[in-house]
Design brief:
Length: 229
């Protein structure tokens, strides 16, 4: 397996854990606001293979207690279950980031108790999903199924939305709130303008709008919070 990025230690990516973060390349979405688009379009070359990663991880036993797996979209990798088994055999907890478009692969990991925490991006209300992820006429059934699987499991989880001024409004969060009503955790995080994102015409939301969106979703998810503000 090829690994495209490694953050050797983080206190932020995996709640309540001292972790490293592993980045896999490839994604089936083309979000115009993506901060990691070099992982999506293949312009970022791999930095190591899995054997080099496990050599690193072996040396971090006792220093780290978790591994966060992100991308890109990790569930595209057919060898991910074996990769996670090796991580867990070393005694580390595993957090998975996913776009939610691969419910069967997600369920297989949950059924085998291979992951301890899952963070799923909820990109927008279903009618605006295709626009938000850069795929016209996108079938959202996988997104809906992943939400049901996650909320019906015993795993620790969070949903999160990156808020973009041009892509989200109050009605977006009314619909999202209903879709994940009763969820344990939901975070709204503001898009940050960068030169590396695909669409340079997108902009950060107004902080007052973020507060308004938060109040909207709190009707359905009382533990919703703003992140990074």
């Amino acid at each position: 397996m090829l690994i495209h990025g490694l953050q050797k230690m983080t206190l932020l990516d995996y709640p309540q854990h001292i972790a490293c973060t592993v980045f896999f390349g490839g994604c089936d979405f083309r979000c115009p606001y993506c901060h990691n688009f070099e992982l999506v379009d293949g312009t970022m070359a791999p930095i190591m293979d899995d054997e080099e990663f496990f050599a690193f991880l072996n040396k971090r036993q006792g220093l780290l207690d978790g591994v966060a797996i992100t991308g890109g979209e990790p569930l595209l990798n057919k060898n991910l279950p074996d990769f996670i088994r090796r991580i867990r055999d070393l005694g580390f907890a595993v957090k998975l980031d996913t776009n939610g478009n691969h419910p069967k692969a997600l369920k297989a990991l949950l059924d085998e108790n291979l992951i301890d925490y899952v963070a799923m991006d909820v990109k927008n209300s279903l009618p605006r999903y295709g626009e938000t992820i850069g795929i016209k006429d996108f079938d959202t059934s996988g997104i809906e199924e992943s939400i049901r699987i996650i909320m019906g499991s015993d795993i620790s989880y969070e949903f999160r939305t990156t808020v973009v001024k041009e892509l989200h409004d109050e009605s977006s969060f009314e619909v999202i709130g209903k879709m994940i009503s009763g969820a344990k955790r939901y975070y709204l995080q503001a898009f940050v303008e960068r030169d590396t994102v695909p669409d340079k015409n997108l902009s950060s939301p107004d902080p007052k709008d973020m507060e308004k969106y938060l109040e909207t979703v709190k009707k359905y998810v009382p533990d919703a919070e703003l992140r990074g503000m």
